Amino acid sequence: MSARQPALGRPRVHLRRTDSTNDRARELAAAGAPHGTLVTADEQTAGRGRQGRRWSAPAGSALLMSLLLRPGPPDWVPPPPLLPLIAALAVADVAGDQAQIKWPNDVVFVREHDAAAGALAKVAGILAEGRPQEGWAVLGIGLNVAVRVEELPAELHGTAATLGRDPRDLEPVLLELLAALQRRLAETAEQTLQAWRARDALRGRTVAWSAGEGRAEGVDGAGRLVVALAGGGRTALDAGEVHLRVEES
Q1: Each residue of 120-138: pLDDT tens digit?
Q2: DSSP 160
Q3: What is the pTM assigned to this prediction?
Q4: In this structure, which topology does domain 12-198 adopt according to CATH?
Q5: What CATH number labels 206-247?
Q6: How far is CA 45 from the centre of its chain?
């Protein structure tokens, strides 16, 4: 392991049950925990997604983790605007070739063989939080490794996906994901954007948000979603400013 890329996942705190692994990791960050500190849990009672959404999964069926990142040497500093995109790429690497990314960082499968063909089913969610002024970020990831979709709340049956693995695969998948994150964090911004664009699930789809709607045309150099507006012209959306509605094909 290069000194320029400290190992991820050590030290590790594993909890049988907690409200939120991100909350625990934030507490550890504030207490001075080192780069690479990992918090995992069998079950979360108040797992959070972006914009206050809940992350729900039966105990022992999903990979629930939060990773503490701190800046390293000058040539290894996680770029905050791209960090969620980097994380989504790492998760997609583990989820397989069929995995795509719904901007900015939901990892999805495209449903192809049922009445909802073309719809996006979410297999993983990512929540990046941090305090740049204090030199840390927390990367929360929930990945449906062994979840049985029929055991989720009824409202999620049409929008959730799973890797369909065995609960015994949770630890191997965790190791795969940490290795993928290690690789992806070492890439340049241009490499990140190029790889992300190859897995873009929204390109060409109609998206709507509180201020308008249009056709998704990929991401710009800052990781913002570029949208061709219905009335002409383009805009770039920041992940913290919008709640997207996607018109399925």
Answers
A1: 999 999 999 888 778 899 9
A2: B
A3: 0.88
A4: BirA Bifunctional Protein; domain 2 (3.30.930)
A5: 2.30.30
A6: 19
